[in-house]
Amino acid sequence: QEGLLTLKEDAGINATIEDIVENPRNIQFKELAPEQLVAALPDVDVAVINGNYAIEGGLHVSEALAVEANDGLAAETYGNIIATSPDKADDPALLALVEVLQGKEISDYINSTYDGAVVPLN
Average pLDDT of 59-80? Predict the structure, then answer.
C-alpha cells in the first residue's frame, strides 16, 4: 500500500517475507509475536502492529506512519462477523442485535472511541 516493497503478484493478504520480490530500501525484517511488538518499539525502526495490540499498548492511529485502508481486503477479511446456526437465522432477537450493531449509534461509538484503529463495517 505504501510502495516500500514489491510482493509476488499472488501474495495476497497472507504475504510473508518470502513473498518479497523487490526491497529497494533494503529493509531488514525481524518477525515477532504480535503481542510483543509494542514493547519492541524502542529496539526497532518501524513495526507493523495489529490494531488491538496498538490500542492495548496506548498507541494512536493519528501518530502512525501508515495505516491500512479501512475499505481494503484485509479489513473486510478480518472484520468481526455475527454468525449463528441455520435454525436461528431468522430469530427476531438475533435480527434485532444485527440491526443495532450495524446502526449509526454503534458506528459513531466505534469511530469516536477507537479513533480509526477500529472501523465499523456495515
Answer: 84
Q: Which residues contact 20 (CB under 8 A, 6 or more apart)?
A: 5, 6, 7
Q: What is the pLDDT of residues 82-91, one digit of tens each?
A: 899 999 999 9
CA–CA gap between residue 118 and residue 113 (Å, rounded): 9
Residue 122 has pLDDT above 70, yes or no: no
Q: Counting beta carbons within 10 angstroms of the beta carbon of residue 49, is it exposed (0 to 12), middle (13 to 18) or buried (19 or more)?
A: buried
C-alpha grid cell, residue 91: 430469530
Q: How far apart, in whole angstroms, are the C-alpha atoms of residue 51 and residue 117?
A: 6
